[in-house]
Automatic annotation (TrEMBL):
Pfam families: Mu-transpos_C_2
Keyword entries, A-Z: Plasmid
Record has Iron as a keyword: no
Any one GO MF annotation of this record: nucleic acid binding
BP GO annotations: DNA integration
Species this chain originates from: Rhizobium meliloti
Residue ranges of domain Integrase catalytic in the record: 1-118
Family to which this protein belongs: Belongs to the transposase IS21/IS408/IS1162 family.
Origin: domain of life: Bacteria
Protein's name in the database: Integrase
């Protein structure tokens, strides 16, 4: 989401959230409890999330299922050398295919609709949002932690068998009892091993 916002350089003031996407839950008294990650994202970009009413399709946004369109049009029969190549191809596809087209639901050219709505969007903050996926991982006998299908080393002095992993867009951070013990870059391919210089590989 953060990358998509930066592509358009704007953020909505009051984005709608569907009832089933996990960004909030309803209590028995009908009050809403928003996901902490969504609250942090909203605070960073300066918007106020609005929950859709359950079982009321008209309260949802008019344009839905954009990821299906991307899967079935952009990703179909494509190959990528790395993440940088994927992003470059995606940007070209957006500029030449997705945004100049007439949208099937709104019957409007996507670029023209965005130009009209641009003034209602807020400028993005200079710093991007640092989303963090927090995981609990067990250290293997070889002193490695599995994250995203790849193995990352921990220092030899690590005593705990369970560690907390913070997975960010560009790096993986490993914590032992709240203390940062290892930082690794995100590996682009799967089934790789990354051993930090201060670690003896078993």
């Amino acid at each position: 989401m953060s990358r998509l916002r930066r592509y358009r350089w704007r953020s909505p003031r009051d984005p709608l959230r569907p009832d089933e996407d996990g960004s909030y839950r309803r209590r028995r008294d009908r009050r809403l409890i928003y996901n902490r990650a969504l609250v942090d994202l909203a605070r960073h970009y300066g918007f106020h999330p609005k929950a859709c009413r359950p079982y009321r399709a008209k309260t949802k946004g008019k344009v839905e299922r954009p990821f299906r369109y991307i899967r079935e049009d952009f990703f179909l029969a494509r190959t990528f050398r790395n993440l940088e190549d994927l992003n470059a191809q995606l940007r070209h596809w957006l500029d030449t295919v997705a945004n100049p087209r007439t949208h099937a639901t709104t019957l409007r050219i996507v670029n023209e609709a965005f130009a009209e709505e641009r003034s209602y969007l807020r400028p993005l903050p200079l710093a991007p949002f640092r989303s963090v996926l927090k995981l609990e991982r067990r250290i293997s006998r070889e002193g490695m932690v599995s994250v995203g299908g790849n193995a990352h080393s921990v220092p030899d002095a690590t005593r705990s068998r369970l560690v907390e992993v913070h997975s960010l867009a560009d790096e993986v951070r490993i914590f032992e009892n709240g203390e940062l013990i290892a930082v690794h870059p995100v590996l682009e391919r799967r089934k790789q091993r990354r051993v930090a210089p201060d670690t003896d590989e078993a």
